[in-house]
Amino acid sequence: MPFELIPPGTRIDFLGKWKICAALSIAVITIGFVGLWKPGVKFGVYFAGGTEMQVRFTGEGEVSDQPIRNVMGSLGIESDAVVRVGTSREFLLKFHGEREIGGSAPDAAETQDVEAGGGGEITAATDLIIRLQQELAERIGPLEVVRVEFVGPKVGAELRDDGLAAIGISCLLLMIYIAFRFTPRFAPGAVVALVHDIAVTSAVWIVFGLEFDLRVLAALLAVLGYSLNDTIVVYDRIRENLELHTRLDLVDVLNRSVNETLSRTILTGVTSLVAVGALLFFGGQVVRPFALAMLIGIVVGTYSSIYIASPTLLWLERRRGGGAKAAPRTRAAAKA
Q: What pTM does this model have?
């Protein structure tokens, strides 16, 4: 017998609160759009261009991030992040701009290497990196450079555009899948829920001034899959109930379907949050942005599968004039 967190026969009026929830979501997304201009989006090195340098101090004694920031500041480097990695003596240094990459303009071959984002070796075009290494060794202690990676502004812009394109293409393909899996009438609601999840998660990220990088992009794409999975479960129950309860109002069918899948939705969300929470608190600084974006996305995705996907379906059916009853026409469409 399946475990039921919510007692059978529960009848919560989710659809009756859809306007309040829609207003709340619009407000959060609007605040995020306002944040695009002030204070703006904080892009990571891979999206804005810059340098990422990982160093390991090999001497004795404790090393903290503030002395490293002081050394970088003395060289005129505006640090975006000094992150402790793994052991207590290993740090990841991030800073933007071509000015920090070298004191003089590199030649064509070196420019190509910087724009390609490859590296690991410190070339003559990166004399500031060499000076930074020397200053860190003199003022803090002996160290070794684990890696140095460069991303030029052009490549950063391309990665940013490709990331947005990846999210857009994913939504389009998922809409096609939902139309094939159910009917074309179900697809818009699923896509609205997906776009909502990405928009709300991004809005929260912008409002709190967190950095967008490849880890956050990976989390957003994972959120798309998680949210779609939740929405499909609800939609599958809606399709079943449309066939079984043809005389009920569509609102009653949708409410019944959401209530019947509520246990599964909550259990999936809680277990996912436990796993992501472990990454957030014990995974270290490198994994933390991914885990935090996933945590926000899971909460928002669970919310949208209840309060966004089904109400959107109801609104569209009413716009088409088919929202009064779960009529035979709707039933036939569900079987298609």
A: 0.76
